[in-house]
């Protein structure tokens, strides 16, 4: 979760974060095994990596974000928050809404994946479709939005093997697209805000079911790709 949105919503209850967590679990859940080491790149609050690791025993999580004020915030035995990782080796690498923040997304991805062991998995999530660009992107300091094929090609350029891909939040895409076209504002302002409890529960339930039971490769608000580090002699 972006540190800029920490004061706006609670990800443990907000429909967007709960549904997105369900989507990420759907694509990576089978790889969450006992003793797994996770590196969460650009982790922010660490919401997603901590939620994924919550029910996995002997799991080690390293949340990396250069925006942390120090390397000692909320450090625990199995969870560390650092500005720079001392080791780049892990079993699972999370790039949840981080590549769109940097000018050279391939360089950031390869900084970690070039040191990743064979068989390690990489989960990439980015905002989808440049046509959805708005003041929300400006507020979060995004550089771009992506189509699914662009993320797949990025992973392949990094020498990874794409194992799966999909869009998330497909059912609300038409409404979001229409609203952003109507507003036509470039004011730097987050779209993330609390909603009525009933609406929040309804959206969370509908989108969670959608992410668990369907795979949309045509459109959505977020693009997600799961890739694997191949055997070194098999890398392009």
Please give a structural write-up.
- The protein is an alpha/beta fold and 236 residues long.
- The chain has one domain: 3-Layer(aba) Sandwich (Rossmann fold), CATH 3.40.50.150.
- It contains 7 helices and 7 strands; from the N terminus they run H-E-H-E-E-E-H-E-H-H-E-H-H-E.
- Helix 1 runs parallel beside helix 7 (197-213).
Structural descriptors:
236 residues, Rossmann fold, 7-stranded mixed beta sheet, 7 strands, globular
SSE arrangement:
Elements: H1 15-28, E1 37-41, H2 47-53, E2 60-64, E3 79-82, E4 92-96, H3 105-113, E5 121-127, H4 135-139, H5 148-157, E6 161-168, H6 173-183, H7 197-213, E7 222-228
Parallel strand pairs: 1-2, 1-4, 2-3, 4-5
Antiparallel strand pairs: 5-7, 6-7
Helix pairs in contact: 1-7
Radius of gyration: 17 Å
How many E-type strands? 7
Biggest sheet descriptor: 7 strands, mixed
Low-confidence parts lasting 5 or more residues at pLDDT below 50? none
Strand content: 15-25%
- Count up the helices: 7
> Could you tell me the mean pLDDT?
90
- CATH fold-level name: Rossmann fold
* Total individual domains: 1
- CATH domain class: Alpha Beta
Q: In whole angstroms, how far apart are the ends?
A: 33 Å
Tell me the structural class. alpha/beta
Helix content: 25-40%
Silhouette: globular
CATH superfamily: Vaccinia Virus protein VP39
Order of helices and strands: HEHEEEHEHHEHHE
CATH architecture tag? 3-Layer(aba) Sandwich
